Amino acid sequence: MIEACGVPHTEVDLIVANGRSVDFSYLVNGEDRISVFPVFEAFDITPIVKVRPEPLRTVRFVADNHLGRLARLLRLLGLDTLYERDWTDPELVRISTSDQRILLTRDVGLLKRASVTHGAYVRATDPREQMTEVVRRFHLARRLAPFTRCMACNGELTPVAKEEIAHRLPPETRRHVDDYRACASCGKVYWQGAHHAELQRIVAAACRADPVSK
Q: What's the 3-state SS for 81-120?
């Protein structure tokens, strides 16, 4: 009945029927008073019966093929986020369940699949607003580790000596920049270029998005 109203089960953390906590197996009667509450990521309600597995305290994401720009922004913040434009819905569900990743999607129907246990419907359409929404929804401000993941592939960035990658650098960069990081997965090299100030503003906005966790 809840999903018939348009709310996927992954958006529900608590159901109260006539003042008593129940799960999805409860059979609704005509005179019942039903209250439905959203996910409580920041509060411990374990003494109350919950309708889904416990929140994933190691927060990792997999994003559907409509959220590529959001995936890059989450990686910028240091959040482990898988994304491939060609993944099908069954592949997304499999990755979410097998890797214990929160499925981020703009498709409500995808979150209604019974095998999906952790997911979130992303309501905003602008990528930066989506980033803010996710950080606030999962109270992530304290968990951010900016500039530690590759925005292209999600691999971890590690410091690399300038001499090792000098042959791959533009001449002006090689002349003026000394600090570099390289992706352990794809080898992409990062440094503080002209766009770094804008990336810092994006990170600062994400940190401000979640006052509860500060």
A: EECCCCCCHHHHHHHHHHCCCEEEECCHHHHCCCCCCCEE
